[in-house]
Design the sequence.
């Protein structure tokens, strides 16, 4: 009888300990004198919205081939904005170095990241 109670308690711990809730997300923004870093993990179901927002805001249709694609490289836009992008379904990192960008480009990237944050935070 005691074994059944232990087994039941163990199953409950596993169920509640697992990530069964797809709404889990994490957003981190770090600003220093040299850089701006945005990192987020979010439910994979929001990936298409995030990608659509990034491509429409940056006016770059070819950053992502599909919503399942992975990206891990430096991106240079037509206006010479440079940033490091690491992305895969449910995860994104954007790192912008101030010395490699104009003030306008830096502000544009900061605004982009805040827009991504809003999309991720939507229900």
Sequence:
């Amino acid at each position: 009888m005691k074994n059944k109670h232990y087994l039941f308690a163990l199953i409950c711990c596993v169920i509640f300990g697992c990530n069964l809730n797809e709404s889990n997300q994490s957003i981190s923004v770090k600003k220093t004198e040299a850089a701006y870093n945005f990192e987020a993990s979010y439910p994979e179901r929001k990936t298409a919205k995030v990608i659509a927002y990034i491509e429409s805001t940056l006016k770059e249709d070819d950053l992502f081939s599909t919503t399942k694609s992975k990206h891990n490289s430096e991106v240079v836009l037509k206006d010479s904005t440079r940033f490091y992008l690491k992305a895969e379904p449910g995860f994104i990192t954007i790192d912008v170095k101030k010395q490699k960008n104009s003030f306008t480009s830096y502000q544009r990237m900061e605004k982009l990241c805040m827009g991504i944050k809003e999309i991720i935070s939507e229900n």
About this structure: The helical segments are 2-17, 47-58, 103-121. The chain has one domain: 22-121.
